[in-house]
C-alpha cells in the first residue's frame, strides 16, 4: 500500500506550498501573516460594500484573543 505524504496545498495568500496538516495551525495559509492578510482584505472588501464613501471608522482593536481550543476529531 502506498503511503501518502501530507496533503499539499497552496497558500491562498501567497501561493506557497504547505502541508495541510492539523499541526499547521494556520492552514490553509502558510503563516499567521498570510492568514491575517487575507482576512484583512476580506474585511476591507466587505467594508467597502457595506460602508458609505467618505465615512471611516477606526479599525477594531484588541479583538485578537487567544485561540479557542479546537478538537480535530
Ligand atoms: Zn502564505
User: Helical percent range?
Assistant: 25-40%
**What is the strand arrangement across the widest sheet?**
1-2
Percent strand equals: 5-15%
Please summarize the sheet with the most strands: 2 strands, antiparallel
**CATH fold annotation of the domain at 1-50:** Erythroid Transcription Factor GATA-1, Chain A
CATH architecture assignment name of the domain at 1-50: 2-Layer Sandwich
Average pLDDT number: 77
If you compute it from the alpha carbons, what radius of gyration comes out, rounded to the nearest whole angstrom? Answer: 17 Å
Low-confidence stretches: none
Fourth-level CATH superfamily of the domain at 1-50: Erythroid Transcription Factor GATA-1, subunit A
Shape: elongated
Amino acid at each position: 500500500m502506498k503511503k501518502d505524504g501530507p496533503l499539499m496545498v497552496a497558500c491562498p495568500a501567497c501561493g506557497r506550498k504547505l502541508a495541510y496538516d492539523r499541526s499547521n495551525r494556520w492552514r490553509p495559509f502558510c503563516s499567521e501573516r498570510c492568514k491575517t492578510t487575507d482576512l484583512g482584505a476580506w474585511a476591507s472588501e466587505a467594508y467597502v460594500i457595506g460602508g458609505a464613501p467618505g465615512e471611516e471608522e477606526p479599525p477594531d482593536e484588541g479583538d485578537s484573543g487567544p485561540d479557542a481550543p479546537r478538537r480535530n476529531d
